[in-house]
């Protein structure tokens, strides 16, 4: 049986990815770890769980030695906006955590590691439109710096030790389950929740801010498809650009308004605007398409309809009288 270790399993991607891996491989095959235990009712809750601080090299080493996973999905990280509130901590969690995982994988002969990078590797000097796979990477956030360094570190483990480390550069991720935690693209999720709760959202980036985004089912598909690809076919291994959809904050509000006509949105940019302005607005993902067959399923209208359907269903279930549950 294939066994899998997930770090950051309680986070935005970790919650859905852990559930998808358990559906694929069985609950017992997937050991979810997080800095804090999952809340009751979380989709990651049913299977095996251990508390793990990825910055604790001894704890990481002991857990990998004991659990002997075939694959590690290392998702624990501090995102861009929260990273800027404490850059020192962001470096320790993002780089220290990745180094501890790669070392444990190397020493205990883990077959595969997945580590997500981000569009945050790019900066103001990078071409913003159709950003190439291989281009200038001079980010202005500590999160971005840790992602560039992380990509290089992963490539080093591939070439120096033959460790099979793979990863993609995720755009902003839109999801209906766990909320994102401290990213610049968080407005993409918050806008949906606000539309259904108060009917109004004050967006922290300008209306004309265009960023690349991806819907969670495509986000999961990318991780699983890349991990299933034949290693010799991969020329890049890490940091694959992934294009799925791109839209402005105003276009997202308009797409939601088609389903929730009373929804209103105002725009009051804060310090996250500068981060958003330093990132690409569209990506060239030809390498991912060529090397492992990447193809997204969701565009803005399809994602919007699906998101609202899921959130409405959850709200209805939450508001049902106990006797009917
Ligand atoms: C963030 O906004 O920090 C993340 C990312 C694009 O990596 N969602």
Q: According to CATH, what is the topology of the largest domain?
A: Rossmann fold
CATH homolog superfamily of the largest domain: NAD(P)-binding Rossmann-like Domain
Order of strands across the biggest sheet?
3-2-1-4-5-7
Count of DSSP helices? Answer: 11
**SS elements, strand count:** 14
Average pLDDT level? 95
Number of domains: 2
Overall body shape: globular
Highest CATH level, the class of the largest domain: Alpha Beta
Strand content: 15-25%
Structural class computed from helices and strand pairing: alpha/beta
Named once each, the bound ligands are: 2-amino-3-ketobutyric acid
- Rounded to the nearest angstrom, the distance between the terminal CA atoms is 36 Å
Secondary-structure element series: EHEEHEHHEEHEEEHEEHEEHEHHH
State the helicity in percent bands.
40-55%
CATH architecture of the largest domain: 3-Layer(aba) Sandwich
Brief rundown of the structure:
It contains 11 helices and 14 strands. Strands 3-2-1-4-5-7 form a 6-stranded parallel β-sheet, sandwiched between helices.
Give a verbal description of the structure.
With 325 residues, the chain is of the alpha/beta class. The model has no long low-confidence stretch (mean pLDDT 95). 42% of the residues lie in helices and 15% in strands. The two termini are 36 Å apart. α2 runs parallel beside α4, α4 packs parallel to α5 and α6 runs parallel beside α8. The longest helix has 21 residues. The protein has two domains: 194 residues, NAD(P)-binding Rossmann-like Domain (Rossmann fold, 3-Layer(aba) Sandwich); 115 residues, NAD(P)-binding Rossmann-like Domain (Rossmann fold), CATH 3.40.50.720. It contains eleven helices and 14 strands. The strands form four sheets. A six-stranded parallel beta sheet has the order 3-2-1-4-5-7, with helices on both faces. A three-stranded parallel beta sheet has the order 6-8-12. β1, α1 and β2 form a beta-alpha-beta unit. The site of 2-amino-3-ketobutyric acid (AKB) has 13 residues, from β9.
